[in-house]
Amino acid sequence: MIFSSRLSGPSVILAIAVATAGCNDTIVNQLNPDGAQITTSGDGVISGTVELEGLGPCEGILMQLGGPAMTTSVVSGPGGGFEVGGLAPGAYQLQVNVSGFDSVNETIVYDAAEPLDAGAIILSVATVPVVGTVALDDGEQPGGASLSVTGEATAEAPTNTVCSVQTASVEINADTVVSSDGIFETRVPARSRGVRAIADRIGYTREQVSIADEAIAAAIDGSPANAGQITLYKLTGFVNIVEGPVHNDQTVTLQISAFNGVAEMALGEVTDTNSDSCGYGDWQDYDAEVSYTFGDNSQGDKTVCVSVRNDQGQELSDLKRTIEIDTIAPTTPTIIVGSGGTISNNATQNLTIQSIETGSGLATIELNDTSGIAGIQTFDYSQLVAYTFAGEGLRNLDIQVIDAAGNSSPAGNGSIIIDT
């Protein structure tokens, strides 16, 4: 809605001589030169005030009043007041045309019961059309998005008029709704500056474009000012933990992806597993990759939370990712080579390996035949592993087990003599 300023002031009685005539005659009435009321056959009176938006009541505004078998002109006096007397009952058409303001064409019905107060006749600042389109980046239909146009306009009193104020700024706040095909149209004052078209839809970013002052000025000639296309971006995002689903440290690396225009983020974690609610730290500048340390040293599943927002305060909350934290290493493994004897004539032996793991589970075995040349070999964890020794004589084994989080146990040892 365009802001309107309304002030009040005293009325002035303007004596108008009204002559009656045949239905085909038009009589233009003038003020009596000496200012006296001229008596006519009618005794009706219509009065009121005339105001210009933002400027208040104005003196010197020319109005035309036409009615049964007559037409007359009247000029508003101090305080914008006007009064026309000597009128017969009937319907009268009041016309007011002022440069820079929308015209008024108002019907006033006078029934001769008593003088009629037409009230305030307010002329709004003249407007020009503004058009454009709205699109959604995901291709969805943009219909129903809201469109606001803001800015400031200037209202100026016409030459030879005296208003409550001669110049005033008028705030622009025009709202409309975008059609199903993405088109919008609204109007702004002709003398506007700093005009911005702002599009908004739930679930998408709020975006705006500026409309050049020159484009608004050119629209006075009839062509609309074109705001172009405003693209809104869906409020989407996700968080990923670089270390994967399980990690052996309370500090993790987060990769954060968010909607176009994201400026800030807040990091936190689920603090109440029953309600799955998040507790957050302070807002900070957005970074696509950042470290986060959980608030305690407990083990098990933990859920990190991320919220992001843009400069306009639009927020996407509670992006979550769960990871298992396991910082406790498996116990030193026990190793039984073969059946547990000290010598064998078979180079291939079954190794029975046992270790206690309380967290993420045992994942791999690293076996080092320290008396051979094979070096460290890695196997998927199993309690029973078939292993072929590379040579004869005393064979010593170092074995470590590693859990899914990457925690390594102390080395366990085993030995056997191979004599084939």
Instruction: Categorize the overall geometry.
Output: rod-shaped
User: What's the assembly state of these chains?
Assistant: single chain
The percentage helix is under 10%
Structural class: mainly beta
Instruction: List low-pLDDT spans.
Output: 1-41
Largest sheet: 6 strands, mixed
Helical stretch tally? 1
Distance between the termini: 100 Å
Radius of gyration: 44 Å
Beta fraction? over 45%
Number of DSSP-assigned strands: 34
pLDDT averaged residue by residue:
86
Question: What descriptors fit this protein?
Answer:
single chain; 420 residues; mainly beta; six-stranded mixed beta sheet; five-stranded mixed beta sheet; 1 helix; 34 strands; rod-shaped; disordered N terminus
Blueprint of the fold:
Layout lengths: L27 E2 L14 E9 L3 E4 L2 E6 L2 E6 L5 E7 L2 E7 L7 E7 L5 E8 L3 E10 L9 E11 L5 E2 L3 E11 L5 E7 L2 E9 L6 E5 L1 H6 L6 E8 L4 E5 L4 E2 L3 E8 L3 E11 L4 E4 L3 E2 L3 E5 L6 E11 L4 E11 L8 E4 L5 E2 L3 E7 L7 E8 L6 E5 L3 E5 L4 E11 L8 E7 L2
Parallel strand pairs: 1-5, 2-9, 10-17, 19-26, 28-34
Antiparallel strand pairs: 2-3, 2-6, 3-12, 4-5, 4-7, 7-8, 10-14, 11-13, 11-15, 15-16, 18-20, 20-24, 21-22, 21-23, 21-25, 25-26, 27-29, 29-32, 30-31, 30-33, 33-34
